[in-house]
Protein: Large ribosomal subunit protein uL22
Organism: Fulvivirga sediminis
Amino acid sequence: MEAVAKLKNVPTSPRKMRLVADLIRGERVNKALNILKFEPKQGAARLEKLLLSAISNWQQSNEDVDLEDADLYVKSIQVDSGKILKRLRPAPQGRAHRIRKRSNHVTLVLDSLSPVQEEVEKPAKKETKKTKKSDNKEDK
């Protein structure tokens, strides 16, 4: 029950976008929307729109399930480098400095957190055999 949304050729550097993406990775959808709404960084508005798109994609594929009951969370968010536009800026003494205008691609995956998955995510306690020291000495 995953939903994927992609955003391509965003005209901000991948480094700046990763700062915002790290804030919402692994968070529940409602909390992630609140974080992005009040985040002043440049990429927050674009990621908020992308998250809303992913929610809409999930609703289209799961029409029989209620959104509140699904308990969606951001399973993964990945920011990759896009095209780099190379420009020249005049520099002193007839030289030129290269300006690199970066862009990025963002991939967002939502998933529903069901009760079965919560039990799997918790670390299982391993049962260990307790042996006495005297038993170990007799074996040798």
In short: DSSP finds six helices and three strands in the chain. The longest strand covers residues 72-90. The chain has one domain: 3-116. Residues 115-120 have pLDDT under 50 and may be disordered.
